[in-house]
Every structure is written in structure tokens, then in C-alpha cells.
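Propose amino acids for all 349 sites.
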């Protein structure tokens, strides 16, 4: 898919009131510059963009208000959100671009979806002042997107079904007969499966999942929140793939649920990008900068792992292996076939 030329609006020059910039400097030049007055320039241009912008995201619905309200109040820019799964927001973005419908400004979803959009030439290289503060692996070489947070997969368990002494200490422990018929799995977590397999060594990892499926069984369910609720109710005694903040939320409400994490833990990066044909590019760049900087504290308060190292997080003490977005894309057919064979076909309701 060709990215197409920049829209007429995208070529709007910086207002003449900014005497520090040449008169013909485009908004995109400002987006791509690390100059100290970059934020002030973006704010001036954003005043000409109508006071609103569009975001496509897979961020959990419960988190949207707490993340974006402070940005809206600070900059006076309304963030119009369309939320769906990572695959859905990616597909919509690509479809609209191919139809030359440039309506979205910012994309926030998983690293795999972001890298796919980069390969479609839909993302704009930027120069955020916060790039230098990000943890290793948060910024690809092309600088067309950056990680904002890590979603950590953990193993949630019903505390009435298992005590801490009953918990597995290694992945191999899951083959113990005491886990037979008690393991749940969220249907879309292909990347967790791939990363665990690779961490074990491919041959050993594939054999592990073959043995796990054939001996103790895996109950595949739809939806991370749904699976977490099933653990809390006892319907599924242990879930292999839910995000750490989910059992925490149920636990705070008094549900008999807790979580552990097998090493190496698997984490999936989520990130943010500005679209190459964004109709409100200055507003978009301001939001990206906010999510990588000031907004990082909000991620920490809702139990994500912030990627900005200036923001403390106890979760960083956990040894994590990150999903490799390039590998997920390059070998998608292979991993999907193995996942269907070892997880889906061998699953038990």
C-alpha cells in the first residue's frame, strides 16, 4: 500500500508568530525535529487544527478516561477514540488508507500491529524528546513508533483451588497431574505461545505444549477479562495467559484470586505512532509526546509496566522476555499453524 502524498492540511506551515522557525517550515518538519522549542511550536500549530483529533486504539476501555482526560485538560484538545482489538484497529487503519480516507491521527496498540503499519508505510518518523528515557527495545531503528507500556502475561489462580505451595515454579511443572483439566488459555494469545516456545528452544518448546495439551488439557476461552472472571469464580482454576492488572482488579474487590509468574515471564509491548497522513499532525505529536512522558505515571498507577525509566515500577524486577514483533510478522503462517495444532485443536472446554 502506498502511503500517498501528504494532505494539504498536513503541509500547513508553522504560523508566522513563531519567529524562531523559517516561514516555510512545515508542520511535519516540526514533528521530526528534536529542537528545545518543539512543544511550543506544536502547541501553536495545534491551535489551528480545530481542537480535536482521532485515536484508534486497543487500550482497555476501563483505562481510556484515566489516560486521556489529563491530556485533554492540559492542551484543550479532544481525543475522539475508536477502540477495538489490535487486529481490528490495524485492519481498519489499513483499509481506510487504501481507500485514501485519512481520518485517524494516532494509533496505539500492540507492537506487532504497529510494525505491520510501518511495513505498509503508514507511519510518520518522529523525534520525541522522551525517546532517550525509554527502556531498551522500546524504539525501533526507524523511529516510526515507540513503546508506551508493557503488558505482562501472568498465571492467575483461584485461591480456593490452589495454595501458594501448590503453584507451578516452572513451565514443566504444569505437566504435573494436579493441573489436569484445570488450565485456561485466552484464544488470541499466539504471541505468548511463540515466545515461550522460543525461550525453551523451538523443538523442546513445541514438545512441551504437545505434552501439556495431550496430558492435562488446555481450556481455551475468549476474552482476557472473561477468563479472569472464570478464575475468580472457580470455573477455571488457573489461567495461563491473563494480564497482571486483571487479577489485581478482581483481588482488590475481594475475589478469591491471585497471580504468579513463571520465568521467563512474557511481556507484550504496546506503543504509539503518528499516522503519515494525519489530518491533525501537531495535535497527534503532542499526544504521542504526552503518552511517552507525563502520561507514563498514569500507566504505572493502573498496573502496566511504563517504558519511561524515569517512572518507577516494581514490576520491572520481574525478568521478562518481550514478544518480537518482526518475528511474529515474518513467520505468522508458521506460528499460526503450530498454535492451531497444539493449542486450539487440543483444547478442552
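Proposal:
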Amino acid at each position: 500500500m502506498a502511503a500517498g502524498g501528504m494532505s494539504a492540511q498536513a503541509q500547513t506551515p508553522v504560523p508566522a508568530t513563531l519567529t524562531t522557525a523559517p516561514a516555510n517550515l512545515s508542520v511535519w518538519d516540526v514533528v521530526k525535529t528534536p529542537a528545545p522549542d518543539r512543544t511550543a511550536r506544536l502547541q501553536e500549530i495545534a491551535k489551528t487544527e480545530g481542537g480535536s483529533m482521532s485515536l484508534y486504539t486497543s487500550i482497555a476501555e476501563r483505562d481510556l478516561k484515566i489516560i486521556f482526560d489529563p491530556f485533554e485538560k492540559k492542551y484543550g484538545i479532544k481525543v475522539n477514540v475508536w477502540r477495538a482489538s489490535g487486529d481490528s484497529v490495524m485492519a481498519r487503519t489499513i483499509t481506510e488508507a487504501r481507500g485514501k480516507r485519512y481520518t485517524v491521527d494516532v494509533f496505539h496498540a500492540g507492537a506487532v500491529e504497529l510494525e505491520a503499519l510501518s511495513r505498509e508505510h503508514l507511519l510518520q518518523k518522529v523525534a520525541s524528546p522522551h525517546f532517550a528515557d525509554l527502556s531498551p527495545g522500546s524504539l525501533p531503528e526507524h523511529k516510526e513508533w515507540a513503546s508506551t507500556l508493557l503488558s505482562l502475561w501472568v498465571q492467575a489462580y483461584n485461591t480456593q483451588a490452589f495454595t501458594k505451595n501448590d503453584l507451578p515454579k516452572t513451565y514443566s511443572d504444569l505437566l504435573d497431574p494436579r493441573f489436569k483439566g484445570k488450565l485456561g488459555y485466552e484464544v488470541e494469545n499466539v504471541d505468548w505461545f511463540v515466545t515461550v516456545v522460543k525461550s525453551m528452544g523451538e523443538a523442546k518448546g513445541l514438545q512441551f505444549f504437545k505434552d501439556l495439551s495431550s496430558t492435562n488439557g488446555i481450556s481455551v476461552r475468549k476474552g482476557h477479562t472473561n477468563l479472569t472472571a472464570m478464575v475468580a469464580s472457580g470455573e477455571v482454576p488457573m489461567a495461563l495467559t491473563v494480564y497482571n492488572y486483571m487479577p489485581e482488579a478482581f483481588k482488590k474487590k475481594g475475589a478469591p484470586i491471585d497471580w504468579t509468574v513463571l520465568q521467563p515471564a512474557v511481556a507484550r509491548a504496546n506503543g504509539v505512532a503518528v499516522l503519515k497522513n494525519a489530518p491533525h499532525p501537531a495535535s497527534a505529536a503532542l499526544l504521542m509526546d504526552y503518552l511517552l512522558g507525563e502520561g507514563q505515571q498514569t500507566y504505572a498507577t493502573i498496573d502496566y509496566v511504563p517504558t519511561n525509566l524515569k517512572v518507577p515500577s516494581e514490576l520491572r524486577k520481574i525478568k521478562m522476555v518481550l514478544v518480537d514483533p518482526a518475528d511474529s510478522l515474518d513467520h505468522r503462517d508458521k506460528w499460526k499453524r503450530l498454535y492451531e495444532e497444539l493449542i486450539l485443536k487440543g483444547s478442552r472446554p
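Confidence is low (pLDDT under 50) at residues 1-21. The longest helix spans residues 202-215.
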